[in-house]
Amino acid sequence: MYESISFSIIQPTDIHFGCGIVGRLPEIIAGLGGSRPLLVMDPGLIRAGLDDRITSVLDQAAIPYVLFDHVDPEPGLRLADEGAARAKEAGCDCVIGVGGGSAMDVAKAVAILCTNGGRAVDYLGLDKIGRPGLPKIMIPTSAGTGAEVTFTAVFINEETGSKGGMNGDPLYPEAALLDPELTVSLPPHVTAATGIDALTHALEAYTSVQAHPLSEIYSSRAIELIHANIRAAYADGRNMAARSAMLLGSLMGGKALAMAGVGLVHAMAYPLGGMYGISHGLANAVLLPFVTHYNLIGNLEKHAALARLVGQDTEGLSLRDAADLLVDELHGLNRDLGIPDSLGALDVEPEKIPEMADIALTVARPVENNPRQPSRDEVIAIYETAMEGWGAAEF
């Protein structure tokens, strides 16, 4: 069964998980040889008064830090360049990313630019980073991106309007602190979008053509944890059991992503972020049921297994009928979480669909990882169905 399997795994991040674990931040900084961090923080945390959860820990340990809070929900490359200039000017020797995926991506890129030089645009693509960056510590405040354990940092290229990523092993953070208490303040709509983002990572990693036995352990458990807890976390953000399970599921989804990659949902979400500024999590969430339906015949056995992982009774059903239950549940989950059921609800323009399809197909690695290889016409058809919404879909 395994004689034809071949894979390599590099996962160097030290992971620290638990309520109150952020209190160990000074210890982690010292262990990495740092003494003056650049603190890259989501400005939303500062507006909400939550920055004190991090800064007070640094202040109590008498660790001087430099705050960089120029982070957008869909960050452009210039933010990485600005952050690196600020870190160099201030003599920072490590970088801490606090927030969602945007803040962590900026922090990872800043750390690389501080030691490699040049501009962020120089490192778009795969394996273009020559040297390790400054030590990187990630502190996620949402259960979504898994960026704290991945080798990718995604940005909008302001010159082209396209969205793309830096990808390479030097982007792996040296340490990640996952404290469920930091996620309690997330509003329901952010809990929903980031949670489905994490679910998308796990689902796509599970069905990726690069999946292998170890990645499947992470992705399947992530799916179980997220699906079992996302509705409760959305309904009551103070539910620490649900919040903790969601953060652990997001972490596992990130680990699976790093091993097996993602698929067509991500490729099709990129132009929605680049052209319309739609958040990555929301774009993934809206597209997920439609792309999953398209992908079913690419691996009916795995999609039927996914239906069982999300609690569907597949006893006595054919693989196709069992797989269809997965799509139904993804749609029902979006409905329960208040996710729009169409791209039309996000004001996407139908006439832009061919351009979006062309951009999506340039996101090579996710497209190649997908269990069903799409043509341009098929990508256009998925977008068109998603424009109209679930009620108009002929499934």
Account of the 3D structure:
Helices cover 51% and strands 10% of the residues. With 395 residues, it is of the alpha/beta class. The protein has a six-stranded parallel beta sheet with strand order 1-9-6-4-2-3, sandwiched between helices. It has a three-stranded mixed beta sheet with strand order 5-8-7. Strand 7 (152-156) and strand 8 (163-167) form a beta hairpin. Helix 6 runs parallel beside helix 8. The radius of gyration is 20 Å and the shape is globular. The protein starts with 13 loop residues before the first strand and ends in a 7-residue tail after the last helix.
Number of helices: 15
CATH class of the largest domain: Mainly Alpha
The shape is globular
Q: What is the gyration radius calculated from CA atoms?
A: 20 Å
In angstroms, what separates the terminal alpha carbons?
Answer: 34 Å
Order of helices and strands: EHEHHEHEHEEEEEHHHHHHHHHH
Largest sheet: 6 strands, parallel
Which structural class should the secondary elements be placed in?
A: alpha/beta
The name of the CATH topology of the largest domain is Dehydroquinate synthase-like, alpha domain
- The overall pLDDT average reads 94
Uncertain residue segments: none
- Which range best describes the helical content: under 10%, 10-25%, 25-40%, 40-55%, 55-70% or over 70%? 40-55%
- How much of the sequence lies in strands comes to 5-15%
The total domain count is: 2
Q: Mind telling me which CATH architecture of the largest domain this is? A: Up-down Bundle
Number of strands: 9
Strand order of the largest sheet: 1-9-6-4-2-3
Instruction: Specify the CATH homologous superfamily of the largest domain.
Output: Dehydroquinate synthase-like - alpha domain
